[in-house]
Inverse folding.
């Protein structure tokens, strides 16, 4: 099982427009003040489907704390409905859409593939990143969230 890797010194949340399921634009910086777990995924990505329940469990475990788990779909606009359907069973997650991989490619370094999960502290500074599938409900993942909550 992959443990989150600590990131090199730190970029802040990329200020790239994301869109919610209703079509309303927003940015990661809108969530400043919360520990942010940002998972880039796609409906066609098999490892993404495997780890999604663990992300949902993490989100549910911290539902009353300043932790937000964002499932950011890189699917094309025509596949958004498919993404909504896949996310329906993971109700603790916040679904957003990254049009044309702007965020995936806009991060430094760019996302290495799907899934990629990036963890930002409350100031919006990237603190850890995992490329590939991980168990987000593991002790390691929770320990990282706990440490960032205490800062």
């Amino acid at each position: 099982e992959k443990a989150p890797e600590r990131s090199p010194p730190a970029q802040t949340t990329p200020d790239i427009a994301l869109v919610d399921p209703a079509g309303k634009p927003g940015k990661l910086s809108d969530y400043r003040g919360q520990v942010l777990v940002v998972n880039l995924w796609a409906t066609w990505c098999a490892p993404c489907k495997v780890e999604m329940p663990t992300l949902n469990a993490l989100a549910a475990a911290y539902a009353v704390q300043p932790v937000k788990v964002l499932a950011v779909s890189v699917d094309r606009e025509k596949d958004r409905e498919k993404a909504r359907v896949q996310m329906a069973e993971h109700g603790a997650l916040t679904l957003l859409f990254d049009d044309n991989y702007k965020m995936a490619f806009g991060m430094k370094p760019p996302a290495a593939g799907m899934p990629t999960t990036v963890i930002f502290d409350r100031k919006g500074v990237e603190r850890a990143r995992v490329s590939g599938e991980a168990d987000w409900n593991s002790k390691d993942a929770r320990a990282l969230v706990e440490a960032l909550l205490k800062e």
The mean pLDDT is 91. The first strand starts at residue 5 and ends at 6. Strands lie at 5-6, 18-19, 25-26, 35-41, 67-73, 94-97, 116-120, 126-131.
